[in-house]
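Checklist before submission:
- one chain only
- standard amino acids only
- sequence pasted in full

Submission:
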Amino acid sequence: MKRLFITLGALFLLAACGNTQPVNIPVKDQTKPSSNEAVAYFAEGCFWHAEIVFQSLVGVRDAVSGYAGGTDKHPDYEKVCTGETGHAETVQVFYDPSKISYSTLVAAFFASMDPTELNRQGPDEGTQYRSIAFYRNAQEKKVIDDEIAKLNASKKYSGKIVTQVLPFNSFYPAESYHQEYIKNHPENPYVEHVSIPDWLRFKQANKTNFNFKS
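Returned file contents:
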């Protein structure tokens, strides 16, 4: 669906009036990992979007685009796009627990996508775009479950939360051209009209909830 949007977008979106104001896209920090660096895994639709969501948070060093949640041990973008591998587009988030907590990452995850959309996010459709919060231990699972309970109690959504909560198994980094894609391809129609606006709305709606990098 993402590729279809890009193809169609090349025909008509580039001709539309858009926001041409420069946007400072967050990229991975070039600093070395801290001695207590931790890792977390989230799937929330297009991994280009997820990359900049997490890389915009203070305490996150890098978010790597990749695939997880399926059974294929040699996934690539073409295979994952078929929906037959079981994998979802996922980000591997490297963070410093002394600067940002796992619970904050989980809160940002749920705040940056619609957890009631089944097997899709926005214009992207298919099981490869389903939302998944992966946990590596019982404590992480409790944090995720508590956040879902909090959202349900808040009545923020009228629909049922369908985000999967799954034990982490394996992560496969995506092809190199997918890494830092938004920073490297700001002119891409999907990036210009979907990825960047979604991220800016997330930042605006949560400017007091999370500590964003300047």
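Reviewer check: The chain has one domain: 37-188.
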